[in-house]
């Protein structure tokens, strides 16, 4: 019989982690919110993290980030973060430096689907001239190994399974804190007999090369803008120069966005 639901604001992680395994109690729990799924072409809009040492929280980090693009309605629906919330937020250049200072000498990240968060952190850190070489513990990987009968293994499903209450899902800080609690639950259930599954693994991510926009895409974009007489600031000024800098993926997204809001061209 399970205990009453556990709130992430309650019991310290050290008490949840029953096994005396100090290595597994020292990590940075992290979560990001972003403008999309591509670390090369999308942007971080929030970083949340907690520093745990031997199961005790030694520091917290929570920052909104102002991206160089508009936050889409879809992302706002998922995260609750809109353009107004980030209009006075610092840039990623400032927040990334603050985050790396927060991480300090720690070498282990904890996350749910950690490769996603790590890929964004790695790409953005590299662009700013920072190394970001970390090891990782991924609650998604652990859940897939041991909770094979659970139909879904996203963070929400694991919260339901372990009766953990996340007071603000899809916000970076609360998701990071919730992930630490879920990790503790998994650790207590499975680490004693399967210690190897709870060893941090080296994190690797190679930035993907950007393909330039095709001439066909470029022509279609220009025609769409002219057809709908779009006055969006993105297309003001040197439109040719702006389009030349677009990648194939960015152009595809922009075409879809225009068609969604304005419709196709009718010949």
Describe the protein in words.
The chain has 267 residues and is α/β, with parallel strands linked by helices. Helices cover 42% and strands 15% of the residues. It contains eleven helices and eight strands. It has helices at 13-16, 73-79, 83-86, 92-103, 114-127, 139-146, 155-162, 172-190, 215-228, 239-244, 248-262; strands at residues 6-7, 27-34, 44-53, 56-64, 108-111, 135-138, 164-165, 201-202. It has a six-stranded mixed β-sheet with strand order 4-3-2-5-6-8, sandwiched between helices. Strands 1-7 form a two-stranded parallel ribbon. A hairpin with a 2-residue loop joins strand 3 and strand 4. Helix 7 (155-162) crosses helix 8 and helix 9 packs parallel to helix 11. The longest helix is centred in the last third of the chain and has 19 residues, at 172-190. It is elongated, with a radius of gyration of 21 Å. The termini are far apart. Mean pLDDT is 87; it is low at 234-238.
List the helices and strands and how they pair.
Elements: E1 6-7, H1 13-16, E2 27-34, E3 44-53, E4 56-64, H2 73-79, H3 83-86, H4 92-103, E5 108-111, H5 114-127, E6 135-138, H6 139-146, H7 155-162, E7 164-165, H8 172-190, E8 201-202, H9 215-228, H10 239-244, H11 248-262
Short structural description:
The chain has 267 residues and is of the alpha/beta class.
Q: Main beta sheet: strand number and arrangement? A: 6 strands, mixed
Beta-strand residue percentage: 15-25%
Helical segment tally?
11
Total number of strands: 8
Secondary-structure class: alpha/beta
- Compute the CA-based radius of gyration: 21 Å
Q: For the residues shown, what is the average pLDDT?
A: 87
Question: What is the overall silhouette?
Answer: elongated
**Spatial arrangement of strands, main beta sheet:** 4-3-2-5-6-8
- Oligomer designation: single chain
SSE pattern: EHEEEHHHEHEHHEHEHHH
Q: Which percent range fits the helix content? A: 40-55%
List the uncertain runs: 234-238
């Amino acid at each position: 019989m399970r205990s009453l639901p556990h709130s992430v604001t309650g019991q310290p992680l050290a008490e949840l982690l029953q096994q005396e395994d100090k290595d597994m109690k020292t990590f940075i729990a992290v979560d990001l919110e972003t403008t999309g799924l591509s670390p090369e072409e999308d942007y971080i809009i929030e970083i949340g993290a907690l520093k745990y040492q031997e199961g005790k929280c030694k520091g917290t980090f929570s920052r909104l980030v102002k991206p160089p693009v508009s936050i889409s309605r879809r992302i706002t629906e998922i995260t609750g973060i809109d353009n107004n919330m980030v209009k006075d937020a610092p840039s990623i250049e400032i927040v990334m430096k603050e985050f790396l200072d927060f991480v300090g000498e720690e070498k282990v990240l904890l996350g749910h689907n950690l490769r996603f968060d790590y890929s964004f952190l790695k790409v953005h850190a590299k662009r700013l001239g920072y190394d970001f070489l970390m090891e990782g513990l991924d609650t998604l990987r652990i859940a897939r190994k041991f909770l094979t009968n659970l139909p879904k293994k996203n963070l929400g499903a694991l919260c339901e399974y372990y009766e953990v209450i996340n007071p603000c899902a899809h916000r970076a800080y609360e998701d990071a804190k919730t992930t630490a609690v879920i990790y503790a639950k998994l650790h207590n259930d499975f680490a004693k007999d399967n210690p190897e599954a709870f060893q941090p693994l080296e994190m690797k991510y190679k930035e993907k090369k950007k393909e330039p926009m095709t001439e066909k895409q470029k022509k279609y974009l220009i025609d769409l803008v002219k057809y709908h007489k779009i006055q969006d600031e993105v297309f003001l000024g040197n439109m040719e120069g702006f389009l030349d800098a677009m990648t194939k993926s960015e152009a595809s997204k922009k075409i879809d966005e225009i068609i969604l809001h304005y419709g196709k061209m009718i010949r």
